[in-house]
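TICKET: design request
STATUS: open
ATTACHED STRUCTURE:
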């Protein structure tokens, strides 16, 4: 279908008619493309036809030819399964697609038939990483989009860009607790430029939504939260326009509760059993006739040559590209600024405190650095940054899921976010972390109090499977030859300082695992670190010991005990995953072909990485010491390590057995 794009202005009163014409065509295309794909959600898509069309043709200030423009208003489709309606409007506007501006092309209406094909940019759910840059984050795992929108609004505020962020949420989706975490956060930070839109069609997947998610109940809840609530007919262009025009104009955030019909315009899609079911090819003609009938009843003149053009983006400063590298101050200078010089002199400094000093140094080095925390900044030591840069620190309180998705939004808005909490509490947000990984979001997560060295607080506060989780994502290619995730596990304050700097300069997801106890400095202050790197801290000929994080200190103690007994060992600190295993395997071949790894986490971390690599060579054996018993509270780290079979004595005994 050839569409004409010369229409620039519509006389008063004709804009709604022009949009209604596009609504009919967009609904038809949503039905057609899901039928062509053999899967998808045409009923959800058509329920949003008027809302999405009003936003994309009329209300949003954006340039379809430049979806990367920092001045564009943004749309986050939290109800990600309804994405065909967005694709339909985007193609009607010839919006640009591509993984980068260098490979951009215009999306055509005929491209819609490639929905969900393996080489198509039109994924089954929103995903900018696959070449649809109109979106800022992957959505589809429900409940996360509003948090992303809040992060985008914070980034716009940091960059002084007067743009609006619109977020569409399903009524059934609003049962997700993260939605309400995000609403709290929006109120806390007065994010009036976020327009929250609830699509209330009354149907979920298996049945009708609960009455607790009815339009009336949602409106009451939103009013109680402090929002300016607009309850509208979600298929009335004038009502939608009037409500959207209020976003960003008052001192309260606006929440729109739009009453819609699932399967709008297509009689065969309206039954509650039709969620996620495309029409058969033989039923397409009847569906199109159903939409044409609606057009006739509403006196809508359907045309292909009157395509409203959205308003131009707001003016925005040019933002630094992601390739701009950040260099921070020397270690000693940073420790002095963070008031940690005395701790360094005493040779007792925790990696979590050194992370705080590194974050502070990064804040001084680059204005793109921002931080979010989950009400534990005085334990993660993100409070150092908060005191120095209050306009770039955003307290999320006890809502880790919201925190991670806010960080993803900040990253999409051009910032470099660090999100910190206890490592155990980040487990609550593993789904959000996974969606950030799918997005290829440049988010840095910092989990403190990790492992069993936490001691007295017990296992409910200890993170044990995190090494395996992040290592798994480190084995996944991002489509550009890079790992989707890196894990940094510093053994001392110098390593924590420099690995935090490395995280800030590394694309995609990064996880910095820090610990509570103070440890001695193991590295010279000018030590350097690299992606995939390890460092040999002792040399020997009897056995190769490998560890990371806090357990490097324990492993070194054991190695010194072994040396006294005449057993000299190699000791490696494997501080980064994915790990370049070659240097360690080469060293192990000179010590009888045996490696002993020592970790304060469940199986799946450094030992597993080395075992997998050794299996390919066939001439190195890897023995692992990990947390094989559920820990409990103990008065000291030593007590818990002994309970879990990871004490210095345990390492010594295991090493002697292997040498024999």
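STATUS: resolved
RESOLUTION: sequence designed for all positions
ATTACHED SEQUENCE:
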């Amino acid at each position: 279908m050839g569409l004409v794009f010369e229409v620039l202005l519509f006389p008063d009163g004709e804009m709604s008619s022009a949009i209604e014409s596009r609504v009919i065509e967009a609904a038809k295309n949503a039905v057609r493309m899901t039928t062509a794909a053999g899967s998808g959600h045409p009923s959800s898509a058509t329920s949003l036809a008027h809302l999405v069309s009003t936003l994309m043709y009329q209300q949003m200030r954006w340039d379809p030819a430049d979806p990367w423009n920092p001045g564009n208003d943004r749309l986050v489709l939290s109800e990600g399964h309804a994405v065909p309606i967005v694709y339909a409007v985007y193609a009607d506007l010839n919006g640009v697609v591509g993984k980068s501006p260098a490979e951009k092309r215009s999306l055509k209406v005929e491209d819609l038939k490639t929905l969900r094909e393996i080489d198509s940019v039109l994924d089954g759910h929103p995903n900018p990483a696959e070449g649809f840059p109109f979106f800022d984050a992957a959505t589809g795992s429900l409940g996360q989009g509003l948090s992303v929108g809040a992060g985008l609004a914070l980034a716009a505020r940091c960059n002084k860009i007067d743009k609006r962020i619109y977020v569409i949420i399903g009524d059934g989706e609003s049962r997700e607790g993260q939605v309400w975490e995000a609403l709290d956060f929006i109120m806390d930070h007065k994010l009036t430029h976020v327009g929250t839109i609830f699509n209330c069609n009354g149907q979920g997947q298996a049945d009708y939504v609960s009455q607790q998610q009815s339009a009336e109940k949602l409106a009451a809840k939103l009013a109680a939260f402090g929002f300016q609530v607009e309850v509208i007919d979600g298929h009335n262009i004038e009502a939608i326009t009037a409500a959207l025009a209020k976003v960003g104009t008052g001192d309260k955030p606006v929440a729109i509760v739009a009453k819609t019909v699932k399967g709008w315009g297509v009689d065969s899609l309206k039954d509650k059993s039709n969620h996620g079911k495309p029409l058969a090819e033989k039923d397409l003609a009847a569906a199109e006739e159903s939409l044409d009938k609606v057009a006739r009843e509403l006196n809508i003149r359907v045309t292909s040559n009157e395509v409203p053009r959205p308003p131009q983006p707001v003016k925005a400063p040019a933002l630094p590209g992601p390739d701009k590298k950040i260099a921070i101050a020397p270690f000693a200078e940073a420790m002095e600024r963070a008031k940690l010089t005395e701790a360094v002199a005493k040779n007792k400094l925790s990696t979590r405190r050194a992370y705080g000093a590194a974050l502070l140094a990064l804040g001084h080095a680059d204005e793109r650095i921002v931080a979010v925390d989950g009400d534990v900044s005085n334990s993660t030591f993100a409070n150092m940054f908060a005191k120095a840069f209050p306009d770039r620190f955003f307290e999320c309180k006890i809502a880790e899921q919201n925190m991670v998705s806010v960080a993803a939004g900040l990253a999409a808005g051009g910032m470099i976010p660090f999100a910190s909490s206890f490592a155990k509490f980040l487990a609550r947000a593993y789904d959000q972390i996974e969606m950030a990984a799918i997005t290829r979001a440049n988010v840095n997560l910092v989990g403190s109090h990790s492992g069993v060295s936490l001691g007295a607080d017990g296992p409910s506060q200890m993170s044990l499977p995190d090494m395996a989780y992040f290592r798994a994502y480190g084995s996944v290619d991002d489509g550009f030859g890079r790992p989707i995730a890196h894990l940094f596990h510093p053994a001392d304050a110098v390593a924590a300082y420099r690995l935090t700097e490395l995280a800030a300069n590394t694309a995609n997801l990064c996880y910095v695992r820090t610990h509570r106890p103070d440890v001695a400095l193991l590295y010279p202050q000018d030590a350097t670190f690299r992606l995939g790197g390890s460092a040999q801290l002792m040399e020997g000929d009897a056995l190769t010991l490998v560890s990371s994080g806090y357990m490097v200190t324990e492993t070194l103690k054991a190695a010194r005990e072994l040396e006294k007994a005449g057993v000299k060992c190699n000791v490696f600190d494997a501080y980064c995953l994915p790990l370049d295993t070659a240097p360690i395997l080469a060293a192990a071949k000179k010590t009888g072909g045996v490696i002993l790894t020592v970790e304060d986490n469940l199986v799946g971390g450094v030992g597993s990485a080395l075992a997998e690599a050794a299996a390919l060579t066939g001439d190195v054996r890897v023995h692992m010491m990990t947390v094989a018993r559920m820990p409990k509270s103990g008065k000291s780290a030593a007590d818990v390590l002994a309970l879990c079979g990871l004490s210095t004595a345990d390492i010594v005994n295991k090493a002697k057995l292997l040498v024999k």
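CLOSING REMARK: DSSP finds 24 helices and 19 strands in the chain. The two ends are 78 Å apart (CA to CA).
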